[in-house]
């Protein structure tokens, strides 16, 4: 008991000393860190008005070494290429989903950050290029911004392909699709080296593109994205060009799962979304 | 020891620690300012320096001088993070505007944040060396301070030193002249096939076989005689009057870097003192001529070599000049007719020596007979006209430009090559001693 008493006194003494030892500390002065906001260019203001304010999506077009791979030789986009690229994304991706899925659809489920890179991202195999990257559904990096030609359909479609594909992943992360049903369709032809065969060869196996062979989730994203990129006529022509009937059946089964997923998970008519994206693509090309 | 005592000592120790911890709160200050203050100061210093010269900065950027040359950039920093830039990377030497920023990396750095000319060195889609590595360029430069009014930086990714030197109005006006120097150094289809580097300190002459890659702006000079054994590596940057090389070419005790173009003989000459010079010269004579031609002379074995268009038209050893001659000849023929072979028979017991011009599309073969002589000094074989077979003089006129190359009076350098193309047949090339004509042949 005596020890406890002594102990109490000691702790009290230590406490007083500990507090007193801080008594003469200097109070913090104003921060030395520079919080002056950057002078906004017209482009910055446009991005604020069209991406940050309405959709809470930021756009990094100026070089920031922390958001790109250091061992790839990439460069930032030319300033005059940024706005056209963002207009394409806004019109074909955001506007289409907003019209069909509801005004705030993209605002609620969206990547929070776009990183734009001007140059081509050549892969170490020296054959393929990386067109886009999605990190955890939060950041999407888009490459080859300097190459986008707003009046060329193939160029616009290739650029939009990346965002459509990555956005399907983000939707999947919000609500999963029926993987079990999907896995039964073409279970044996997935590959860790999907580019070992061409798109045409992959279609004969029941995949919409070579990259779709990577795994179930990539297959789902590719199937949805490519249908969204094509008009109904173009998609029918693509199916008609496949010479293996079983492969056509497989792709149609996958298409059915995609359509059902959009309806059940988000109450979106997938074909209406496709038609809206087509209309908006034509608008982009004509303006 | 009793628990009671352990407690006592522990508490005492703790109290002692508390007391001594308050003894001195003054850490020794190595700097007068806090790290943040110093970084802010350095940031401001760099930005002020970048903005200060009225004509901006000149940066000859060697991304890696062990395998690439230098690329001249003129950079004028402007207020509000804007920057004007021009370079001699490609034919476009105009000024372009983009943005820059002073960013904090591992230290204070200047970053060209939107695309301009300097980014062309970091384009994974244009890689003359390793795939995807571009020209190994960087566009974030870490600030290391000033030296003789130059700003010294190191590249962010590759840690190579880069110097910003104050530019003059003349630098901006003259940048487009670098394009002329590039054209002179690169040459064209009419330029001789070979180049040598020749140095003299006023007495001793040293000769090197000089190979230059116009894309990488990098050359190597292999010694042509035994006394100079070292192969020189030369990273080239262009100037309005010629080239500058890194490292310097050592001539005697002098180090020469600046080569001036000489219009008369199309050479690049660096001049030192006391008659010391280094010169890069074009020549049609191979730096290392062979004796391979001797086998083909009168009295030798029967030999046939032939250019077969189907297999050899794309051989890298055909000179652009020779390809242009073949193209011109083919252009005079009917649409379905082309030169199929240019076959040269030597010492045929029945027919002697002849060139057989063979065609696709049913056109009859034309033969040109010749006799051979040698130029032992220059190591060439000379093919002299000995009559034709097939067609009339007028109907053979289209072949003249090609035939004149092969039978030129200065002769041909014949060389047995070490590579094969498509088939295992030995490859021979012959090059005119008078023009940059070189054609690739199989030996049958």
Give a verbal description of the structure.
The complex is a heterodimer of chains A (287) and B (444). In chain A, helix 2 packs parallel to helix 3 (79-101) and helix 3 packs across helix 5. Chain A folds into two domains: 35-148, Collagenase (Catalytic Domain) (3-Layer(aba) Sandwich), CATH 3.40.390; 175-287, 3-Layer(aba) Sandwich (Collagenase (Catalytic Domain)). Chain A contains eleven helices and six strands. Chain A is α/β, with parallel strands linked by helices. In chain A, the strands form two sheets. Chain A has a four-stranded mixed sheet with strand order 1-2-6-5. Chain A has a two-stranded antiparallel ribbon with strand order 3-4. Chain B has 444 residues and is α+β, with helices and mostly antiparallel strands. Chain B folds into three domains: 35-175, Beta Barrel (Lipocalin), CATH 2.40.128; 179-283, Porin (Beta Barrel), CATH 2.40.160; 292-443, no CATH class. In chain B, 17% of the residues lie in helices and 40% in strands. Chain B is built from seven helices and 24 strands. Chain B has an eight-stranded antiparallel barrel with strand order 1-2-3-4-5-6-7-8. Chain B has an eight-stranded antiparallel beta barrel with strand order 9-10-11-12-13-14-15-16. Chain B has an eight-stranded antiparallel sheet with strand order 21-20-19-18-17-24-23-22. In chain B, a hairpin with a 5-residue loop joins strand 15 (267-271) and strand 16 (277-283). The chains are: A alpha/beta (287), B alpha+beta (444). The A-B interface holds A 3, 6-7, 10, 13-14, 17-18, 21, 25, 32-34, 38-39, 61-65, 70, 72-79, 81, 118-124, 126, 129, 146 and B 4, 7-8, 11, 14-15, 18-19, 21-22, 25, 34, 36-37, 40, 80-81, 98-99, 101, 103, 105, 111-115, 119, 122-125, 127, 131-134, 136-137, 139-140, 156-157.
């Amino acid at each position: 008991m005596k020890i406890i008493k002594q102990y109490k006194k000691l702790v009290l003494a230590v406490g007083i000393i500990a507090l007193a030892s801080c008594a003469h500390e200097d109070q913090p002065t104003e921060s030395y860190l520079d919080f002056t906001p950057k002078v906004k260019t017209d482009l910055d203001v446009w991005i604020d008005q069209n991406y940050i304010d309405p959709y809470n999506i930021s756009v990094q077009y100026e070089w920031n070494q922390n958001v790109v791979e250091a061992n790839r030789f990439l460069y930032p986009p030319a300033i005059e290429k940024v706005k056209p690229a963002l207009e394409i994304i806004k019109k074909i991706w955001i506007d289409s989903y907003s019209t069909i899925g509801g005004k705030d659809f993209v605002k609620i489920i969206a990547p929070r950050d776009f990183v734009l890179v001007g140059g081509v991202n050549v892969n170490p195999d020296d054959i393929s290029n990386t067109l886009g990257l999605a990190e955890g559904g939060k950041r999407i990096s888009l490459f080859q911004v300097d190459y986008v030609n707003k009046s060329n359909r193939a160029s616009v479609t290739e650029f939009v392909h990346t965002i459509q594909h990555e956005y399907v992943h983000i939707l999947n992360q919000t609500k999963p699709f029926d993987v079990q049903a999907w896995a039964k369709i073409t279970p044996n032809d997935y590959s860790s080296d999907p580019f070992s065969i061409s798109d045409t060869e992959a279609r004969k196996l029941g995949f919409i593109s070579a990259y779709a062979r990577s795994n179930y989730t990539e297959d789902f994203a590719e199937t949805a994205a490519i249908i969204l990129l094509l008009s109904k006529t173009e998609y029918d022509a693509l199916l008609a060009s496949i010479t293996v009937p079983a492969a056509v059946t497989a792709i149609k089964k996958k298409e059915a799962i995609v359509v059902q997923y959009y309806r059940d998970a988000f109450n979106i008519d997938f074909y209406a979304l496709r038609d809206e994206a087509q209309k908006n693509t034509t608008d982009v090309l004509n303006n | 020891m009793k628990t009671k005592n352990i407690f006592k000592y522990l508490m005492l120790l703790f109290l002692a620690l508390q007391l001594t911890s308050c003894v001195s709160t003054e850490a020794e200050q190595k700097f007068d300012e806090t790290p943040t203050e110093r970084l802010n100061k350095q940031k401001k210093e760099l930005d002020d320096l970048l903005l200060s010269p009225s004509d901006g900065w000149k940066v000859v950027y060697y991304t890696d001088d062990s395998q690439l040359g230098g690329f001249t950039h003129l950079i004028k920093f402007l207020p509000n993070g804007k920057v004007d830039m021009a370079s001699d990377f490609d034919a476009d030497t105009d000024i372009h505007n983009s943005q820059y920023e002073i960013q904090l990396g591992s230290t204070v750095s200047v970053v060209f944040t939107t695309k301009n000319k300097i980014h062309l060195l970091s384009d994974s889609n244009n890689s003359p060396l390793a795939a995807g590595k571009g020209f190994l360029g960087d566009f974030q430069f870490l600030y290391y301070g000033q030296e003789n009014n130059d700003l010294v930086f190191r590249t962010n990714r590759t840690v190579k030193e880069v110097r910003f030197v104050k530019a003059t109005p003349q630098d901006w006006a003259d940048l487009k002249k670098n394009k002329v120097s590039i054209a002179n150094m690169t040459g064209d289809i009419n330029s001789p096939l070979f180049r040598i580097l020749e140095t003299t300190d006023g007495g001793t002459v040293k000769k090197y076989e000089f190979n230059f890659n116009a894309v990488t702006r990098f050359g190597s000079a292999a010694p042509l005689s035994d006394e100079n054994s070292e192969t020189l590596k030369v990273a080239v940057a262009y100037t309005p009057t010629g080239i500058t090389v890194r490292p310097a070419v050592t001539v005697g005790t002098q180090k020469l870097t600046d080569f001036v173009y000489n219009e008369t003989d199309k050479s690049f000459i660096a001049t030192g003192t006391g008659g010391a010079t280094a010169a890069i010269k074009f020549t049609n004579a191979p730096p290392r001529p062979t004796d391979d031609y001797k086998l083909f002379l009168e009295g030798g074995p029967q030999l046939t070599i032939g250019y077969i268009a189907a297999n050899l038209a794309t051989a890298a050893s055909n000179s652009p000049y020779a390809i242009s001659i073949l193209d011109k000849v083919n252009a005079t023929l009917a649409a379905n007719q082309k030169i199929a072979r240019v076959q040269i028979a030597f010492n045929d017991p029945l027919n002697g020596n002849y060139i057989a011009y063979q065609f696709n599309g049913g056109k009859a073969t034309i033969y040109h007979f010749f006799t051979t002589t040698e130029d032992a000094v220059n190591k060439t074989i000379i093919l002299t006209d000995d009559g034709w077979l097939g067609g009339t003089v007028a109907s053979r006129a289209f072949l003249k430009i090609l035939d004149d190359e092969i039978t030129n009076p200065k002769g041909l350098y014949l060389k047995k090559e070490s590579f094969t193309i498509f088939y295992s047949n030995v490859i021979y090339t012959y090059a005119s001693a008078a023009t940059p004509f070189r054609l690739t042949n199989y030996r049958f």
